[in-house]
Specification:
- The protein is an alpha+beta fold.
- It has two domains: 35 residues; 138 residues, Umud Fragment, subunit A (Ribbon), CATH 2.10.109.10.
- Helices cover 18% and strands 28% of the residues.
- The protein has a seven-stranded antiparallel sheet with strand order 1-2-11-3-4-9-10.
- A hairpin with a 4-residue loop joins β5 and β6.
Length: 184
């Protein structure tokens, strides 16, 4: 009888420990994805070839300082209601920098220096309604899609410069499709 009680008690303790471990893991993941990481689906081809329509990416929303080359997810809800809610773009310039684009030579300049952009799909020919040069104001960034001639970005007055407070996070890696984790 005592052996059966001890055996039952051990089984209950094992079940309790397993449930406790699973619950702790679920809470830890929920907290991490609420405060530190986010997942976002890519809609459209504006970031091709780096990201494709339907890709799912993981963002870091914690302690993020915008820098040139970062792929970010952003929104500007009251500034451009006719544009998609969430935009995935690459930071080209940060506050205080001047952006100029030579559309004849298809070269983007930041502070007078031509950018080396191996990540773009094709040379930048599409002007949108961009008037140049522009200096990025404090608290803003200038973003462009990697598929320059098929991207609505800071060259378009409907988007314009992006307020840093509207950056949801920096893309860390691709979650889907599985096996293609690296973001170039």
């Amino acid at each position: 009888m005592d052996n059966q009680k001890t055996s039952n008690k051990g089984a209950v303790n094992s079940i309790y420990e397993a449930v406790s471990i699973i619950a702790t893991a679920v809470v830890a993941v929920a907290v991490a994805f609420t405060f530190i990481f986010r997942t976002v689906g890519v809609v459209g081809d504006s970031m091709f070839p780096t990201l494709r329509n339907g890709d799912r990416i993981i963002l870091s929303a914690y302690n993020f300082n915008p820098a040139y080359g970062d792929i970010v997810v952003t929104c500007q809800p009251e500034d451009s209601p006719e544009v998609e809610d969430v935009l995935v773009k690459r930071i080209i310039a940060t506050e205080g920098q001047t952006v100029d684009i030579d559309f004849d030579k298809c070269i983007v300049y930041v502070d007078g220096v031509a950018l080396d952009e191996p990540y773009i799909n094709e040379p930048t020919r599409d002007r949108e309604d961009f008037t140049q040069p522009v200096t990025v104001p404090e608290g803003y960034v200038f973003v462009m899609g990697d598929n320059r001639n098929h991207s609505t970005d800071s060259r378009d007055s409907r988007i314009g410069m992006i307020r840093e407070e509207y950056i949801l996070g920096k893309a860390l890696f691709r979650m889907m499709p599985f096996g293609q984790f690296k973001i170039g």
